[in-house]
Amino acid sequence: MCLYWNRVVFLLVATIASSSLLTGCSSETDGTGKLVAGPDETAATPSASGDGTASPDALGEYCKGWEKPAALFAVTGQMHGYLEPCGCSDPQYGGVSRRAALLQQLRDRGWDPIPLELGGTLKRSRQQSQFKFQTLLTALRSMKYQALTMGEEELRLGGGWLLSQHVTDPDDPAGVLGFVSSNVVLFDSPDLGTPIPFKVIESGGKRIGITSVIDPAIARQVGGLADDGISVSDAGEALTKVKASLLEEKVDLLVLLSHCRLETSKQLAQQHPEFQIVFSTGPVEEPYVDNPLQIGKTTLMVVGHKGKHVGVAGWYPDSADKPVRFEMVKLDGERFKDPPEMLDLMRFYQDMLKDSNLAETEPALPHRTGHKFVGSQMCGECHSKAFEKWKETGHGTAFESLRTGRRGIPRIHDPECIACHVTGWDSQEIFRYESGFLNEASTEHLLHVGCENCHGPGSEHVKLINDGDEEAANKLMRVTVEQARDSGCYKCHDLDNSPHFDFDSYWKKIEHPGKD
Fold this sequence. Notes:
Structural class: alpha/beta
Shape: elongated
Number of helices: 19
Number of strands: 18
Distance between the termini: 56 Å
Mean pLDDT: 86
Helix content: 25-40%
């Protein structure tokens, strides 16, 4: 299995890298799940000064007024599984395809960006996460990423599986994307070839030394690392050793990728001032305030979560007052069009999910009530007016948007998409309940966002009605408007999938009577 996927990933890298990265947009819905034609994603944001602050550009020209730097870094991190915008609403930002478009635009300027990844690429550690990580590695390699930090989410995949993803290229060993970490070792063998403790890159006639570190306190949250063949040493001590090796390499600039709490990254910057540039993971999704931070002669920068931005940093060694310029570039769909090669990769990812049949084969869990899902059609036998109203809403056709998907790529086999578009799944934790939607053939009655997604599985309600206990049956299923407003709707209409959600206006679209 591992050898097979390594071969597939290598072939994909070769195919994508052989083509120039071109430039696509997104789809939107009517607010309840029904897919409609939408414009490219764009929205007004505060203007950037281009003077080294991290304020977002106004979706106009980025890095405005910059001269060509001696070295240009394009840094991402804490993607948390957001491989691409889901396409459920507009505007949405981020996605690896748009990263590719940004990097190509920078290369078209005559600049030579050095892409770096801070880690934290996943949200879960399931089989779908492995497929997603393999897809991401292929994308990063095609974008010529130079280093990938081993963060908490990567460590959860286990030492053996991480080792299986190490791809070498005898013809260009220095150009291969690799795991880089000064304080992570797999199977107590530093000579395995991954992770490497540091990497030296040449840019603009300068030698740049790059290393990374993970906070052991963060790594310990994973649990069972030793059993998975992973050891994590003290960050400060590891950096002392690597720093000495990098200085022996006669580097002109030392760069640290810090997968740490921000306060820890600040401390490391103080303890190791030889690192003039530190890119750190951080606590907020859109870090526009106090970013970058100047700690002595070290510039510390954070780049946000979920892949919505790329932190672009230019190094100007001949500038006494401002050797580092930094800007957060927001990945919108207006300026950064999805390259066809990246869309092909996203299509291949969905094909992997289809072939693996994850939506049907991963274990289902019992609902907390112990009750079973019966489908909206059965609800409509008594609640005919509510049922007719439901059929007119986006909820009543929610599965249809998955057939089209984002950019014409169907998502009907993707558990992370199915969970909010059918009946009988946990939309936050992404798992199927027993008796929940399985597939169109065997559970057609559970297609779309049905009554039971809000009111709970209906088998006991039906039983109580048949037993003549209507009062108990109604009490069991009752959901007040206040309960829906406080928590119910936000299980799917969260900030990522439904950024314009407003309960009062959306409720008017689906408001329905009780029993006829």
